[in-house]
Amino acid sequence: MPLFGIEKLNNTQKSSLDLLQQVSGKLFEGVEQLGQLHLKVLRASTDAQFESLHTLASARDLQAFVEWQSSFVQPTAQVERSLEFNRQVCELISGTQTQIAKLAEHQMAADAKQVWELIGVIANSVSTGAEPVVAMIKSTLEAAGSVNQNANKTARQVAGIVENGITAMASAVAGQTTREASKATGGTRKKA
Fold first, then answer.
1. What angle do CA 149, 154, 160 make, to 5 degrees?
2. Rounded to whole angstroms, how far apart are CA atoms 6 and 23?
3. pTM of this prediction?
4. 58 burial via Cβ count (<10 Å: 0-12, 13-18, 19+)
5. Residue 74: phi, psi to the nearest 5?
6. Maximum CA pair distance of the chain?
7. N or C: which end of the chain has fewer CB within 10 A?
8. Which pLDDT band, with edges at 50, 70 and 90, does 192 fall under?
9. Cα dihedral value 105, 111, 116, 117, nearest 10
10. Long-range contacts, stretch 84-91, CB < 8 angstroms, 24+ apart
11. How many CB atoms lie within 10 A of CB 96?
């Protein structure tokens, strides 16, 4: 009785091909969503620029021109838009990464099951003197599975830490920009 049947080999190949297709699909979905996000931001930015130009074109006196000009000294809104865009990009990347990791974990579990089935077949086929070798192989596989679980757990923790760091950095930058904008606006108003 062969250890590796053609049917098992074909199933493994099909499973690997399916995984590759699913990962590829998730990557394309992520890239598509990123493209849509870029277009949305570009459209909003273009609309804001045209609105600003319409405001300039309709300025009839010096006061209206000064008000239009002072709108450029409001970096808080620009920074908030930029931070929101960065947050959405990070969220999109994180979501895509999580989906791919889940697919990989599922495939690894299926592969581990096949390996354990193979070990069972080997254990039933070997002579009684080879039992220590089979026990060593099982022990090695259990240790490898434990290492893999720890690596996955650590990767999820690192992703959480990075996401929290980005959020904290965005809040700090927004706060600093708001303070600087308040100072700049206050200084501009005193001069006007």
1. 130
2. 26
3. 0.62
4. exposed
5. -115, 70
6. 100
7. N
8. very low
9. 140
10. 85/37, 85/41, 86/166, 86/170, 87/166, 87/167, 87/170, 88/37, 89/34, 89/37, 90/163, 90/166
11. 19
Give the CA distances from residue 44 to residues 8, 34, 52, 77, 115, in Å, rounded to whole numbers and listed in that order: 54, 15, 12, 13, 53
Tokens at 146, concatenated: 């434990």
Q: Which of 91-95, 135-139, 173-177 has the highest mean pLDDT?
A: 91-95
DSSP state of 192: -
Tokens, residue 108: 């690894």
- Pick from 136, 142, 137, 149: nearest CA to 105: 149
Assign 152 a pLDDT band (cuts: 50, 70, 90): confident
pLDDT of 4: 58
Residue with tokens 């006196």: 61
Which region holds residue 2: left if phi is over 0, alpha if psi is between -120 and 50, else beta?
Answer: beta
Q: At a CB cut-off of 8 Å and minimum separation 6, what does 41 contact? A: 81, 85
**What is the spatial distance between Cα 173 and Cα 87, in angstroms, rounded to a whole number?**
13
Residues 120-142 have pLDDT tens digits of 777 777 767 777 777 787 788 78
Distance CA 117, CA 53 (A): 70
